[in-house]
Amino acid sequence: xxxxxxxxxxxxxxxxxxxxxxxxxxxxxxxxxxxxxxxxxxxxxxxxxxxxxxxxxxxxxxxxxxxxxxxxxxxxxxxxxxxxxxxxxxxxxxxxxxxxxxxxxxxxxxxxxxxxxxxxxxxxxxxxxxxxxxxxxxxxxxxxxxxxxxxxxxxxxxxxxxxxxxxxxxxxxxxxxxxxxxxxxxxxxxxxxxxxxxxxxxxxxxxxxxxxxxxxxxxxxxxxxxxxxxxxxxxxxxxxxxxxxxxxx
Amino acid sequence: xxxxxxxxxxxxxxxxxxxxxxxxxxxxxxxxxxxxxxxxxxxxxxxxxxxxxxxxxxxxxxxxxxxxxxxxxxxxxxxxxxxxxxxxxxxxxxxxxxxxxxxxxxxxxxxxxxxxxxxxxxxxxxxxxxxxxxxxxxxxxxxxxxxxxxxxxxxxxxxxxxxxxxxxxxxxxxxxxxxxxxxxxxxxxxxxxxxxxxxxxxxxxxxxxxxxxxxxxxxxxxxxxxxxxxxxxxxxxxxxxxxxxxxxxxxxxxxx
Lengths: 249, 256
Hints:
The structure holds 2 protein chains of 2 kinds.
Chain A: E1 4-12, E2 19-27, H1 34-43, E3 71-74, E4 77-80, E5 93-96, E6 103-105, E7 108-109, H2 112-120, H3 142-152, H4 159-163, H5 176-186, H6 195-202, H7 216-220, H8 227-247
Parallel strand pairs in A: 1-5
Antiparallel strand pairs in A: 1-2, 3-4, 3-5, 6-7
Chain B: H1 10-13, H2 15-42, H3 48-59, H4 64-88, H5 100-126, H6 147-157, H7 165-193, H8 200-230
Helix pairs in contact in B: 2-4, 2-7, 2-8, 3-6, 4-5, 5-7, 7-8
């Protein structure tokens, strides 16, 4: 086992600064993950050449792969840094920020575009009253609950956008994450009230028609969300909506 | 996604419809035309008279130019132009993420470019060559030695652009392979786009079926090209070709 942990980090002092690579070495301890290594480097901000440097900036919260904050590219693969265990990674471990979002600093990116997309598609279930409406919650079959659960696990980490050849900063495509949430919320008895609104947003430029069927999203998703099935399902829903718009309105 | 855009352009307003029409045109009429075209080519196996008769029937269709323009040229132009616009959006990453489906995505666009180039060559070769004075008048192809069959063989063997027959065969085989891949993979993306096929299992089954169809069409097309390119034009005499009676169709009166 290696006596030290060797990390190579792509750094950038600010949104418009030039990026550069910096290497770090720390004593080996078992059980480390990429976030705990970054925590160590924050306490010991000394690079491999022994120079004291600005600590590396990154984001993280939950440390159990459910919050999505620490998404970054680890050895070429977009994933959650907290779930990337050092003992399972080839060294030197290369850490890069996600490339599809504006960089704030070092490994921290601004994923506002993801939240804008969720707003655009109304990715929520509207409440049906602020007072007691004397009704039970609407029923959902256990089978559908199981499928919906998969989509509910999306943590907006952005890995699917990172690998999508159709998604980029300056393009209009809304990206697979938001499509999964449309699938989720359209299938909810109350959330379905917004179904037509959501589908109409998906029929605008940057909507579902901009998916290129590369299917990378479903392969990289750390939560195994069936994104391509969502896209197929929404293809069907928008087809029906389109025909309805053409022939019923 | 920009949600605070001012008045959308006409193209933006019809974005979804344009993309869906693009998707549909790839299957109907373009895909159907491809299959029909390959079927016509393969009548060469039944002999010159069958080939000539079959192509003659097509040429005798009423409003042929309108059929050509409305059901071939315009759909091809629409599918091709919007297709290039779509393909230019791609930021290929199959080297970084070498999943098979990602390669299929990239190949779908690469074969699109190859097919566009090939169709241009093919149409100049057999449809518009007379414009440039480098081939017999297309309209007079009936009257070429050996009829349409002779006209087709001549196209491969005349050393057009100084290229020997085998180079033309290779060009056509590449063009055929690109068109067949684009069509068969396009069947899959068509089914995903329209929501005909949704789940992973169904998509896998469809991909296998489309792959099998692709192999079949490729073999079918290559042997047709070979058959049409390698016959000795001197040996073509329309009536000397032996035919199985089961396939004989009475030639229309007045044709020879």
